Structures are given as structure tokens and as C-alpha cells.
Amino acid sequence: MNFDSFIGNRKIIDRLRAKLREGRFPHGLIFSGPTGVGKHTAALMIAKALNCTQATTPDDFCDRCPSCRKIEAGTHPDVMTISVEEDASQIKIAQVRHVLSILEFQPLEGRNKIFIIDPADMMNAEAANALLKGLEEPPESSYFILITVNVHELLLTVRSRSQVYNFTPLALDELRQHGVSDDLVLRWSEGSIGHARSLDVARLKSERELMLDFLETVVTSTEEQFQDLLGASADLGRAKQGFEERMKILAVLLADVLYLKEGVDGKLVNQDLRDRLAQVVKRASVDRIIKMADFLGFIESSLKNHVNRQMLTDMLAITGNEILNDFLTESR
Ligand SMILES: [Zn+2]
Prior knowledge:
Helix 5 (125-136) links the parallel strand 3 and strand 4. 30% of the residues are buried. Helix 4 runs parallel beside helix 5 (125-136). It contains 16 helices and five strands. The mean pLDDT is 92. By secondary structure, the protein is α/β, with parallel strands linked by helices. Zinc ion binds at residues 52-55, 61-65, 67-68. The site of zinc ion (ZN) has 11 residues, from helix 3.
């Protein structure tokens, strides 16, 4: 593996390589972007390039020399990943202090020390403030690479001392280059090779089936079927695990319904459910679908405040049902 084999986000890789060639590599970098698009891999590649003993150019690495191999294995003494320790919920100040304590020393084996902080947004305020010292006056041979899903989660003072690179989701073709071939996996992975690799297709299909059933019940129930509707909502609200995941799946189904309404079929995530989704399209108005999607956003924020899930799913069901909604609006 080398820089040429990195898939996706090519512009970022090219810019980083140019900086390596020019010999003025920035001492503070932030790699921001969704999970599973190669941010950590890119950071390790930089660490390899800054320490490789056999590369013929400064902007690449051999991936075979002892230095490259140790970095790959996570055993190089000069390349350190600082992460959330087991049983902890944040990166602690003690971890950052340890980094600062070794910052001034010469590298032990290689030419440069690289500290990868991943995820950097899990540093508590104390730890982030301590890190500033290292970012302000880094020794010539020390480099920091901060990895985060959202650069705005980091302190402004940390951001202003680093160069920010925004990684983007991979295109379907780029995911295919990674060896992902299943169409459903490709479309559900949101451009993340990490998601694509960890996606449990069987589970996704069964959860998706539940949510499509729910959606169908919501949009087709008549007044006489009110009890059925509340029954479906109760089943959903009772689910002990995966409630948020189910809401997310429903959001994707609703987006598909809107795509079908608008006639942009190519964007459909659930191509295999096209016929059933087309039935939903026939039964529900755009207005109703948008209201449901909006309500999912409300559910997401409400869950943080421990609002009763049963109440939320009841309201979601009523929001999506034309007859009930009209009835409630008129009697208001
Ligand atoms: Zn090497």
C-alpha cells in the first residue's frame, strides 16, 4: 500500500503529498469528516512517509521497511495514537500531559514523532487546553494529527493552530474499488467504507421490513383501523434495543418515498423495495411524508431528554395518517 492506493478524497492526499515534497509539513493537522472514509489511514500514511527509511521521494513510503511495518502494527515508539481508554468516556488530561512530557525529546527510532489524537472531539476541555501548549510551539520533529467527525466540535483555539482537511463520503464507484459489490450495502453505507464493512445485511433487512410495515400501516389505516395503528405504534415504542436505528431506517425510507414522488429514482437507497414504496407514494401526500420526516428530527432531539418513546411513536403514527391528522386539525 502507498499513497496511490488510497481510495477517495484524492485532492486531500495530493495536497498533503505536495506539503511533504516541499519539506514544510504543518505541525498541526485536523482531519475532519464522517467515520470510515480513511482519515485514520491517511494519518498513518503521513506517519510512514515522515519516517520511512527506504522511500525514494519524501512524499511516499515503501510500506516494507521496519519503520513502515512498525507503524502499521502500532508498535513504532515515535508514532502514538491517543484515544479514549477502556472504561473511560473521554480523553483525559493525563494522556495529553504524557504527550507534552515527551514532546521535547528527540525521536527514539525514527526522524519524526507523530501524535494522532482520535477522536479529538473526545478530549475534555482541560485536555484540549493542555494540548494547545503542544500546538503553539511544536518542536521541529513533532507533528499532531487530530481526527474528528466534526471540526466544529473542537475548541476554536485548537482549530486556529491547525490546518483543517475536510474528508467527504466516498462515491459508489470508490466503495466498489474497496471491494464492496452488494448493491444494498453500497447504498446503505452512506459513502463510508467502515459502515460498508460492518453492515449486517440480514439484520438491516429484517429491521427495514419492520419499519416499512409500520409506514404502510400508518399511511393506509382507516378510522376503523385506529386500534391497529396504535398497536403498530406500541410495538415500535416497546422495542428495547435499536430504537434510534429504526428511526434512522424510517428516515431513509421516507427519503426514498420523496425521491419517488419527485421522480428521481436513481437516488433511491432501497431499490429492491421500489414496488412497495411506490404504493406508499400513492397513498400519502408529500405534505404528510415531510411532516413525518420532520417529526423524526423531533424524536431524535427528544430522546436525549428521555421523553416517553411510546408517546413519540403514537404522535409519529398520527402525523403520518391522513384521516386522523385531518380529524385532529379540524377539531382543534
Ligand atoms: Zn518504509
